[in-house]
Amino acid sequence: MFSQFKQLIDAAEAKVSGFDKLQVSLQASQKEVTMLEQLVQTQQKQLESFSAQDQLVSQLTRRLAAQSQALEQLEVSSQHREKQFDVVQSQAIVLQQEVGQKRKRIQDLESDGTFKVQKIQQLQHKLQEYRGICSYVSLHTQQLEQQLQEQQGEQESQQATDPQKLTQAAVCQRFSIFATSQSNASADLPDQDNSVAEGAAGLLAMTSTADRTQATQSEADAQHSADDPGCHPEATPSQAGTVARGSASQEPRAESAPKRASCVITGRHPNTPRQVAVICRQLTGTLVLGDCCQQLKILHNGSEMAPPDFEAAAGCSKGKNWKANIKVQGSNGRNQTLKLWLPGLMQLMGDHSKIAVVKDTDINELLDPETGLRHLQDE
To answer: What is the secondary structure of 184-213 as a DSSP string?
Structure first.
């Protein structure tokens, strides 16, 4: 019994010692479990942090996508604005060119206006001179008529003596009166210039021609009446003088009739353009500038015509002032008369222009290469 009990005690002690070991191992396993639980908790915390980071990353991704879309929109708007800027810049360049052209047009108009003002002043000065000439001539004409009336009265009173001697005496007296008036022409006009005196002398010379014709006719009539007393008994010397004066006064008018200017080219600048656009009132054409010894022609509706004929077709007086009525059309919208455009480039037959053909001068110094018009001195 005792041995059995001892065995039981030994077995119990052995079991107790095994239980202690188990308890120690249980404690160790509990520690490991707690450690594992801590690890699990840390891992869960890490997982939670990772999920939060994922959310942050997704938010950042969405923000980046929105920002990229905004950048794309900004880029599109910047491109659109660049295009608008290019359009505005091109429009500004066009406006600057238009402003430059308008300024040049204004300068051309101002220069043309100053030239026209100078021309008007010259014409007014000439008009004053011609008025002075007319007043001077009318005054001296009245004096001469009074003297002639007095002489005619004396001649009629002495008509019974000798008609032939009376006519010769009248001729001598008229010539002496004209010589006296012409010699005193410059002395009677102290305040006028030389052109007025020359004009007065020319008109007196015209009057002298009429007086000489009248005297010659009177002498011939008197001699004819002396040879044939029955011929024209009613005609008196005063009436014959009046008829002679009327016929002689028409001679200067016939000589001063305008002549049609010739259009044959006698000189030409070698680089002058062959064709130039011209206009006369509302009629347009093309001026053909040929070589020497050729006619100056204008093409209009497929037909050739001389400049005076083109001027007449436009409704102007034919052949009188075609160089001033026909104008060259410039590319800038400005027109220039042939009277200003032709000198130095072209010489025509009968053209008494003081400027001959300037063959040794560059054509660009005479013509503007952009507009095709002449460089004027006042420009």
So the answer is: THHHH-SSS-HHHHHHHHHHHHHHHHHHHH
